[in-house]
């Protein structure tokens, strides 16, 4: 029997509720005052590379041990400072820092940039020193809000990525949703799921053909930064396998989301830990095909009722919180409220031990 349960401190919009309450002007409002992990630090060298945040250009290059980020390339920076925007306070240079193997760039008022607002990622070393095969890049051809909603629906993987994570059949399946003014978290706990084809081929959890699963998706609304942990446990914790994935969703435009991802798997055998990150090349294109087709409708004007059901609690809560945040920022309030500290320790919620380094 499958049981579905949704809980939160504040209810999501009800099914059929007015589109003016359930829908958000996706792609038309760029949320500000947040850190964006725009590039893996090994990609930042002396020669500048270009990235974008909400269509705003970001050039990155390294001078010695320091990373610089600017609206213009190094050759133009001195001569074009007069063209600098509000995002660099008229200097042409963005606040930038290195953490977890990424160059984080502040998008918003530079005076509000605070390193304490970088999201906590407990399973990545702060130094970012991980083997090359554990990180990579992918491009989604849709707005980042759609990517976040897709990731918050942990059940979609059963149908779209069943060969990797397993099908929808289990002895018991519970879903809960938590949120703050800046985050939405979906937690799924299922017992007695069958091993997937990929898990069998990789020799994951070989003592039994069924296992328990706990999945967590933690989404930061302003930046789209998403932290994921999937824990597969057969008979004992010693045999468990954890898929720990950092999934930045950098919003380059309404039709392009840059994904510089990083895995740090734990457990199982050497082959599984080192080869599992390669399933991104299977999973990500499947998601992209689906979301690319959905994106035009997702960005449409608010001309119809949101027909989501009560089982879409995480997505509905995401839209509600996004609407509230959009309304605050449109009114000129870019502050972080007391119920949300992006840098707070989330290791217990995610069900992971903090790594050192």
How would you characterize the overall build of this protein?
The chain has 357 residues and is of the alpha+beta class. It has two domains: 19-27 and 138-350, Naphthalene 1,2-dioxygenase Alpha Subunit, Chain A, domain 1 (Alpha-Beta Complex); 34-108, Rieske [2Fe-2S] iron-sulphur domain (Rieske Iron-sulfur Protein), CATH 2.102.10.10. The chain is 22% helix and 28% strand. It has helices spanning 19-22, 74-77, 144-152, 156-160, 162-165, 197-201, 270-275, 280-298, 313-330, 347-350; strands at residues 34-40, 49-53, 56-63, 66-70, 96-99, 102-107, 135-140, 172-179, 183-194, 210-220, 226-233, 241-247, 250-253, 256-263, 266-267. Strands 7, 8, 9, 10, 11, 12, 13, 14 and 15 form a nine-stranded antiparallel β-sheet that branches. Strand 11 (226-233) and strand 12 form a beta hairpin. The longest helix has 19 residues, at 280-298. The protein starts with 18 loop residues before the first helix and ends in a 7-residue tail after the last helix. Residues 1-9 and 11-22 have low confidence and may be disordered.
Q: How much helix is in the residues? A: 10-25%
Overall tally of structural domains: 2
Give me the secondary-structure category.
alpha+beta
Say what the CATH topology of the largest domain is: Naphthalene 1,2-dioxygenase Alpha Subunit, Chain A, domain 1
Computed CA radius of gyration, to the nearest angstrom? 20 Å
Q: How many angstroms separate the termini? A: 43 Å
CATH class label of the largest domain: Alpha Beta
State mean pLDDT (0 to 100 scale). Answer: 87
Named at the architecture level, the CATH assignment of the largest domain is Alpha-Beta Complex
Element order: H for helix, E for strand: HEEEEHEEEHHHEEHEEEEEEHHHH
CATH superfamily of the largest domain, please?
A: Naphthalene 1,2-dioxygenase Alpha Subunit, Chain A, domain 1
Residue fraction in strands: 25-35%
Number of strands: 15
Poorly predicted tracts of residues: 1-9, 11-22
Task: Outline the biggest β-sheet.
Answer: 9 strands, antiparallel
Shape: globular
Helical stretch tally? 10
